[in-house]
């Protein structure tokens, strides 16, 4: 990782400007004045402090919890080798991507983020790239929002099978559970500002405390695996993929998916105080901490996994249930540990819901979506984009119906947001890289990569391309209608839809966002 001394800061004038803004903010807070961003029918107020911003991204990713409930994909593709070495690879690669995006966040911390940067930094056809990027980013985050209720519903069904062996799950059961989990965060986001501080505090405490409790329990009680199993076992003869390299690549899904979404706090930028310095720090801190926790949990899990055959073939369809049950020998204790995972994922759902609603609002404000005036409206009393929030909720409800038609729809809910989010990260980094090596470099913010910018941007682009290659692969062969990975076709449909929108009305409707010259309170 880059040494902090090698990362340049902005010129002295910029630093003095940030310091002056901090001093102004302090006086404003003492006098009780509130700074706000005017839009639509109301305002978005800056109320998110530095600690809340850090906790927001830290909890939103909930990486070790996501690994715990999705590592079944890696068990059949790649196995321990994909999980252990893949977690190292994903942690380093995602951190480099986050650092590259953090530099842009310091230049222009904005709710629109990726699409606004693409529109600003693209060498030509700025409106086109901005609109295309906007559609991809909105789609990626709506899919990411869908993954939380999908995982939660999988946990509920798994626990039902575990506690009641006679229970026969139906696919429509999962859809109804997803709908139920969607309603609560939707309503809760009406008062998100009041809920933020206690919710983030409770979430951060649980995220760390449950991690420590899980590690200690497994280390003390579980049966030990051999070192050769953890470090040398490459599974490539279970899913139908006989090529070891392909199996390892597909197995990366488990370790790359939980580390996406670090840009969530970016889409809350209009509500973060001193966003030019705090948003980049929050992004890098959340990725770094979650990468370390994910790696530690995977290492512990592999050494304490117990009977691999029983875990892989558990009737609950959720291997982590069998892992905890073999370790504790108690159904009550197993239920408690799995519910602990669900609590964190549920709290993260509030954050994801809030983040994507702001993104939809910002894209509508810039005339990126049809009916932009309606979805770009901010409720004057609640001070939140109510119509955008309702659109996100409706999209989640509709996507949940996919589960009724496919037995492996859960795989789509996991691979789809990861694929779409990595694509949304690619183009802004590509464009700033091209600007960096051109005769027209961008104006940097307080956080500047300096001489490390070119190599870090290149590494980020290579990592993203490598990950994108594997995301659309089906996890099981032979491919049927039921086990098909629909991530690739759905992303292709979104790109085609965005192109149609551009041709029909988007090129006339969409406005290239302009950086608003306003104090960074």
Automatic annotation (TrEMBL):
Predominant localisation class: membrane
Topology of the protein relative to the lipid bilayer: Multi-pass membrane protein
Taxonomy, superkingdom: Eukaryota
Keywords: Membrane, Transmembrane, Transmembrane helix, Transport
Keyword Membrane: yes
GO molecular function, one term: transmembrane transporter activity
InterPro entries tied to this protein: AA/rel_permease1
Location in or out of the cell: Membrane
Cellular component, GO, one term: membrane
Gene3D superfamilies: Amino acid/polyamine transporter I
PANTHER family named in the record: AMINO-ACID PERMEASE BAT1, GABA TRANSPORTER (EUROFUNG)-RELATED
Protein name: Amino acid transporter
Organism of derivation: Lepidopterella palustris CBS 459.81
